[in-house]
Amino acid sequence: MIVKVGESLEKTFIVKPEHSASAVSSGAVNVLSTPIMIAFMEDVSFTLAQKYLEKGKTTVGYHVDVKHLAPAPIGSEVRVKSTLIEINGKKLKFKVEAYYKDKKIGEGIHERVIVDTDEFMKRVNE
């Protein structure tokens, strides 16, 4: 693995009706839900890590500690940034942030663990 602390990646997502708090039963309003915002953050962190892993390796989510600071409406564009802030053996720690327009709507920490895909799935299926 050649990834270095400080590497970052940004992706944008469109908030669809199925991403709303109402749709995923995390609330009763039609705005970006916290679970989907976290999923966006995991997506960007996964994509960043995967760019640097050798064939047969992947990462799995291990820990999430996120604050959802403000809403984003259905149809809006949300920008999510993930920055690798620590490597500890097979554990990767990311600072994650989400923005609607220029307003920060979410922030926190996400950790992923590097695994061998075949070995991981073998354990799952045992």
TrEMBL record:
Q: Which domain of life is it from?
A: Archaea
Q: Which InterPro entries match?
A: FlK, FlK-like_dom, HotDog_dom_sf
Q: Domain Fluoroacetyl-CoA-specific thioesterase-like spans what residues?
A: 15-117
Q: Which Pfam families match?
A: FlK
Q: Which PANTHER family match?
A: BLR0278 PROTEIN, THIOESTERASE DOMAIN-CONTAINING PROTEIN
User: Under what name is this protein listed?
Assistant: Fluoroacetyl-CoA-specific thioesterase-like domain-containing protein
The protein's organism comes out as Sulfurisphaera tokodaii (strain DSM 16993 / JCM 10545 / NBRC 100140 / 7)
Taxonomic lineage per UniProt?
Answer: Archaea, Thermoproteota, Thermoprotei, Sulfolobales, Sulfolobaceae
